[in-house]
Amino acid sequence: MGLLDSLMKNSGILGNLSELAGQSPQLAQAAQSLFSANDASVGGSGGLAGILGALQSSGLDDVVSSWLGGGDNKAISPSQLESALGNDTLSQFASKAGIGGQEASAVLAGLLPQLVDSLSPKGGLPDAGSLDGLLKKALGA
Prior knowledge:
- This protein has a single domain (3-37, 50-139), classed as Arc Repressor Mutant, subunit A.
- It has helices at residues 3-9, 12-15, 17-23, 25-35, 47-57, 61-68, 78-97, 101-119, 128-139.
- The chain is an all-alpha fold.
- It starts with a helix and ends with a helix.
């Protein structure tokens, strides 16, 4: 059974970031690189704010707002992520995580809502200086 199969059979893991990091340290490190504004190896250092901006620019402002605000988090599909982030970013993430491209978009679609929600208890992301530390703690990277 592959990583994606394991995650999908136990989808709660996607919401439990430390458990996800424990099961796949390589995936946690790839996520840390993608979401960090200080690491250009995956996604070109736009960081989490850049990813959210790309999603909002792709017409997914209501989805991103649900993650930042209180209440239920709206889901995002792997195809919506692919459209917003582009194949290059997803390929870089997949390569660093040691998974396939389709797995990468599916994993990120499950991970992003919970991660953003956990990092934004006051309705906005913390400043870039403290965000990297919070990401490392959340992802166990």
